[in-house]
Amino acid sequence: MKSVKLFVASLAVALFVSSTVSADDKKAANLKVNTAKSELTWLAKKVTGEHTGKIALKEGSMTLDGTKLTGGKFVADLTSITCTDLTDKSYNEKLIGHLKSEDFFSVEKHPTATFIVTKATAKSAGVYDVTGDLTIKGITKPVTFPVTVTTSATGAEATGKLIVDRSKFDIKYNSKSFFENLGDKMIHDDFSIDVKLVAAK
């Protein structure tokens, strides 16, 4: 009888240890984003053409529960914005100066933009609809976009395309949402940001 009790007690301890290890293995981990390896590529369109460029990521973190994306926070440095399609230096500088001005991102007053994940809904293996709070010019709005996450033993990489409606963030310049009869001076409200985030454990 004692041997049976001893066996049961040993089994209970083994199950407890096993469950504890399993829970620890699945514990959510915050991964720091490598800003040098991460990229934010913007694309804005107007009636007469388009422009594209880069924005540096200032800092960021990605939260994973095992291999599942559960959260994250990312800060973009708007003072770093560049244009990669204009080869003429004077035109390039003029465009960047305009984008940093009050007409667009008011970079002097609002040097960063942030995105905080509030929900990540799995659609298939490694593919999510990510919803979060996007803050530009001190204005916060919810946005949702598809994200693909690839995990490895050393970290994770997330990619996706975020579509932003600038009119929701008080960016009015040549916007049809605020002005009529703009003709070929109209700039589309939506602009996109191709996101590539590289994070390490």
Protein traits:
elongated, alpha+beta, 2 helices, single chain, disordered N terminus, 18% helix, 201 residues
Describe this structure in words.
The structure is a single chain. The chain is of the alpha+beta class. It contains two helices and nine strands, in the order αββββαβββββ. Strands 1, 2, 3, 4, 5, 6, 7, 8 and 9 form a nine-stranded antiparallel sheet that branches. Strand 7 (about 140-150) and strand 8 form a beta hairpin. The chain is elongated, with a radius of gyration of 23 Å. The N and C termini lie far apart (about 50 Å). Mean pLDDT is about 90; it is low at about 1-25.
Strand % is over 45%
Which outline best applies?
elongated
The total count of helices amounts to 2
Write down the overall mean pLDDT. 89
Instruction: Give the proportion of residues in helices.
Output: 10-25%
The main pleated sheet reads as: 9 strands, antiparallel
Given as residue ranges, the uncertain stretches (5+ residues, pLDDT < 50) are 2-25
Distance between the termini: 49 Å
> Radius of gyration from the CA trace?
23 Å
DSSP E strands, number: 9
Query: What would you call the structural class?
Result: alpha+beta
| Secondary-structure element series | HEEEEHEEEEE
